[in-house]
Amino acid sequence: MDTATPVQRRVARPRADALRNRERIVAAACEMFVEFGPEVPFDEIARRAGVGNATVYRNFPDRDALAREVVCAVMDRTSEWVERALAEGGDAFETLSGFVHFAADERIGALCPMLSESFDQHHPDLVAARDRVTELITELMSRAREAGQLRPDVEFGDLMIALSQLTRPLPGTACQGIDRFVHRHLQLFLDGMRAPARSVLPGVAATVEDMRRA
């Protein structure tokens, strides 16, 4: 009696266009959460991402799932950056400064407080991503402190609060409108606003007219 050969089932992989749609949704949600807060309508996120509402809900059944994906993705990219920087070595404070500017571009300072205020903080994916990035940033700061380059009275919370305050746009303003000032203000923070100047500030001074147009 012949024994039937088991059918080898292939696990379906997401189509390339489906992956691109998911990435566009996450990128659009990141921008809009920062600009308008966590309650921004899914319709608006779908419109900015250039997809239909059904595509958003197919990927993320509720707001918590979307917010968690956004924040975890940002924290994972940040962790990967810090890991590479630590492996490369180099000047400890310059590496810390590089992290601050990278984190600003990733909007980690604005997104993480948003999540802690409004969503489940105990999901295992979120906890794992948060613990990993916290440990790595703490190591980065310890390295700069041990090199005598970082004030001994500055801790992890000080850095993250400053990132949050200096990278969040004014309510209702576009991320792109304020971005051209963020790195300038972060450099002021990193230099401690001390004279004489220790670095050249990127960009130009923000005028009243600039802020009105932002």
UniProtKB/TrEMBL annotation:
<dbReference type="InterPro" id="IPR036271">
    <property type="entry name" value="Tet_transcr_reg_TetR-rel_C_sf"/>
</dbReference>
<dbReference type="InterPro" id="IPR001647">
    <property type="entry name" value="HTH_TetR"/>
</dbReference>
<protein>
    <submittedName>
        <fullName>TetR/AcrR family transcriptional regulator</fullName>
    </submittedName>
</protein>
<dbReference type="InterPro" id="IPR009057">
    <property type="entry name" value="Homeodomain-like_sf"/>
</dbReference>
<dbReference type="Pfam" id="PF00440">
    <property type="entry name" value="TetR_N"/>
</dbReference>
<keyword id="KW-0804">Transcription</keyword>
<feature type="domain" description="HTH tetR-type">
    <location>
        <begin position="19"/>
        <end position="78"/>
    </location>
</feature>
<dbReference type="InterPro" id="IPR050109">
    <property type="entry name" value="HTH-type_TetR-like_transc_reg"/>
</dbReference>
<dbReference type="InterPro" id="IPR049445">
    <property type="entry name" value="TetR_SbtR-like_C"/>
</dbReference>
<dbReference type="Pfam" id="PF21597">
    <property type="entry name" value="TetR_C_43"/>
</dbReference>
<feature type="DNA-binding region" description="H-T-H motif">
    <location>
        <begin position="41"/>
        <end position="60"/>
    </location>
</feature>
<keyword id="KW-0805">Transcription regulation</keyword>
<keyword id="KW-0238">DNA-binding</keyword>
